[in-house]
Design brief:
mainly alpha; 67% helix; nucleotide-binding; TriPribosyl-deP-CoA_syn; CitG; ATP binding
């Protein structure tokens, strides 16, 4: 990363400082993770994604299924936090242990959803951040960049016991030569820490309501991300439609403005016509909300919550 970019990231990390007097427990981290998945799923209107209105471009998912999946993953996130806290630092051994926990969590998810992949990407993305957060101990101030760095260090170790992956995301990553979720994690979650969180905070600072601020954070991620979910479902036309459409909404003033909302509706129509869904961006928004909840955690163990 260029020195200027590193400096900007440090400035951003300072703005995102998480001042806590008591570090969240493993159980609290798991609840934050599940709440992040639930709030991402309920957020409406999201372009071509499952939300309160319906299934978007997904035939095998709906909101009730997404919520069952999220709740089923709470023991998984708690186990990830517990393992990382026990090991204390990133290592190949920890990477292997977390991978085993994550694979068991996938089976719990599939059982809860009747076989539908609701949160496989989120188990990896949010799960690593849970692990990173659990290893920070009682350090104060704790910041999002530090959590991301620890999670990235874990992700950089190979999973020695993993079978060769033939997932939709992996096939799209290889076909289109993009980084995918693995590179996102290994690079320190730039679409969360450098894009999603700053966009969310900027929207709030500008007086945008919480619902629209979260939509705009999602769109900011979409505008930049080489989303393998989009690439799998609709190839480069789907990716370009999502990126360009998201930029148009933001350039029009965001989803809370009349012109921005019109552009958001047009974006959804374009993605639905291509059977395309920005599922990777949705996982990264959930990660953004998870870190945002850590920022609002206080000494009594409470976290900020919004009615959306």
């Amino acid at each position: 990363m260029a020195p200027a970019a590193l400096l900007e990231r440090e400035v951003t990390a300072t703005r995102l400082a998480i001042s806590v007097r008591t570090a969240p427990s493993d159980a609290q981290l798991a609840r934050f993770a599940v709440t992040a998945l639930i709030e991402e799923a309920r957020l409406t209107p999201k372009p071509a994604l499952v939300d309160r209105r319906g299934s978007g471009a997904h035939r095998d998912l709906d909101l009730a299924t997404m919520l069952r999946s999220a709740h089923a993953l709470e023991p998984t996130f708690a186990a990830l936090a517990r393992a990382a806290r026990h090991r204390g630092e990133p290592s190949a051994l920890l990477r292997a242990e977390l991978a085993q926990i994550g694979r068991a969590g996938e089976q719990d998810m599939l059982h809860a959803t009747g076989g539908s992949n609701a949160h496989r990407g989120a188990i990896w993305i949010v799960g690593l951040l849970v692990a990173g957060a659990s290893m920070t101990g009682d350090a104060t101030p704790l910041n999002a960049s530090r959590v991301g760095t620890l999670a990235a260090q874990i992700a950089c170790f190979p999973d020695r016991f993993a079978a060769p992956s033939d997932s939709h995301g992996e096939r799209a990553r290889q076909r289109y030569q993009v980084g995918g979720a693995r590179r996102e994690a290994q690079d320190g979650f730039p679409h969360v820490i450098d894009i999603g969180l700053p966009a969310l905070l900027a929207a709030r600072a500008n007086g945008v309501g919480e619902n629209a601020a979260r939509i705009d954070a999602l769109l900011s991620i979409m505008a930049s991300l080489d989303d393998t979910c989009l690439l799998h479902r609709a190839g480069l036309p789907g990716l370009h439609a999502a990126q360009q459409g998201a930029r148009r909404v933001l350039q029009a003033g965001g989803s809370s403005t009349p012109d921005g909302y019109t552009a958001l509706v047009a974006l959804e129509h374009a993605l639905l016509s291509l059977n395309a869904s920005p599922g990777g961006a949705a996982d990264l928004l959930a990660a953004t909300l998870f870190l945002d909840m850590l920022a609002h955690h206080d000494a009594s163990g409470n976290s900020a919550s919004w009615n959306i």
